[in-house]
Specification:
heterodimer; A: 113 residues; mainly beta; four-stranded antiparallel sheet; 11 strands; 49% strand; globular; B: 109 residues; five-stranded antiparallel sheet; 55% strand
Chain lengths: 113, 109
């Protein structure tokens, strides 16, 4: 089945450590997105990519980095510079147009040890 | 950061009752408004993408209307069922989505 796969489902980070969240899609979508959810807040955009080898910062990019070397993959690295990384992270993809819905993965919950 | 607001934050509905809730967004430079349903332990699922003022969309017992001139959209659930329990998110598109915080609907049997 076509869809978006995020891994791992749960991730723990030690102080000073970088961790990478995986996002893979087989929907042949050009655009991919990373969101963060905190309790009581809406989804906030971290980074997005409209095409391979190109990406843009979202509203809360500080402390995060991404790459888009392949159309299918958009990994997110949470760096040690992100001081409050504990959150639920969602990856999404879409055809790059305003009237096309986004398709979401099941998410990764990141916690600090 | 665009201001997208949803109200109420949560509501409880008796099974069989109908309900509605609101999403407000900037009324200038409108491109599209998305609605998503997010059930517990699942990923968000697209309900509607609305692009024209006066748009009305329907999916089963759920429908939505759009007023781009005044910057609001209503989502309606007719004859609520327990499976309608979820958080409903709206998002304003201007080359990227800005989400509201959601309205959490709990349908009591």
């Amino acid at each position: 089945d076509g869809g978006i796969t995020q891994s791992p489902k749960y991730l723990f980070r030690k102080e000073g450590q970088n961790v990478t969240l995986s996002c893979e899609q087989n929907l042949n979508h050009d655009a991919m997105y990373w969101y963060r959810q905190d309790p009581g807040q809406g989804l906030r955009l971290i980074y997005y990519s409209q095409i391979v080898n190109d990406f843009q910062k979202g509203d809360i990019a500080e402390g995060y980095s991404v790459s888009r070397e392949k159309k299918e993959s958009f990994p997110l690295t949470v760096t040690s510079a992100q001081k409050n990384p504990t959150a639920f992270y969602l990856c999404a993809s879409s055809i790059a147009s305003s009237n096309q819905p986004q398709h979401f993965g099941d998410g990764t919950r990141l916690s600090i040890l | 950061i665009l201001n997208v607001e949803q109200s109420p934050q949560s509501l409880h509905v008796q099974e069989g009752d109908s309900t509605n809730f609101t999403c407000s967004f900037p009324s200038s430079n409108f491109y599209a408004l998305h609605w998503y349903r997010w059930e517990t332990a699942k990923s968000p699922e697209a309900l509607f993408v609305m692009t024209l003022n006066g748009d009305e969309k329907k999916k089963g017992r759920i429908s939505a209307t759009l007023n781009t001139k005044e910057g609001y959209s209503y989502l309606y659930i007719k004859g609520s069922q327990p499976e309608d329990s979820a958080t409903y998110l709206c998002a304003f598109w201007d080359y990227k989505l800005s989400f509201g915080a959601g309205t959490t609907v709990t349908v009591r049997a």
